[in-house]
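Shipment paperwork, digital attachment
Item: protein structure file
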Amino acid sequence: MNNEIDTLATALYVKTDDLLKAAPDMAPWRPAVGFVPRLTDAELVTLSVMQALLGFTSEARWLRHARKHLGHLFRYLPQQSGYNRRLRDAADLISHVIRALAVDTTLWTDDVWVIDSTPVECGRSKETVRRSDLAGWADYGYCASHSRYFWGLRLHLVATLGGLPIGFALAGAKADERETLIGIFEADPHLVADRPTQTLIADKNYFGAGFETRIAQAGLHLLRPARKGEPERPGAQLFKPLRQIVESINQTLKGQLDLERHGGRTIAGVAVRVLQRLLALTAAIWHNDKIGSSTHRSLTAYDH
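Attachment content:
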């Protein structure tokens, strides 16, 4: 274990603990009378981020590793079933921490956002599809970027050019990308209300007069490549290099944070594991920003 991830974990723990002291209602609900958890909510959040950054997709293997190597950071570690239950119950808290860390960076005020969706595969066999608790939410879809079909969900992500998550949604593989994006902004109206000149860069699937009117009414300036038969649109020279940025952000989530190896088998299980990886990415960017790192989205210092 290196000093860099220890430093990030300590900073994240302090930040989360301060958030919970200032707003205790963020913590998962628990009865007023009962056992006090030996692993605090701030420690749970920190532990989950370290798991994602260090590449442990198995919770059982992660806890065995943590017991052997992280005793200096965590005085108590639960069993796998307890950790899994606590993590699922902490989904709302993780969402709050993602936003709190994002706001506390210099990237939060960037005036350009990129939007894209990426597959979150949830199963491969017909038997899995037939018996899965995700049936009805997960669906068959096609990933044009990698020319493959998949069964699962899509993560829709609004991010800065530096990769900082601004807004996100997890939807079925066939969900309309445009309606999902509108839903992200409607669920958090203050996100765009305070940014009347924000530029949103998307791919050619974010099209349609009605959609573009709604985006303009929200105060956003949409840039996208022209579709077949359309005249050239403004900003065409930007799309190719910026497309590489979008793919790079997705690759960070998939290649380094194992987004598609989440292991979730229920709606709550998949949702919190996706949130866990978004929090890990946000925490790394937040910490890199605080220490003045030249590359905000680099996870190399924390993955070993």
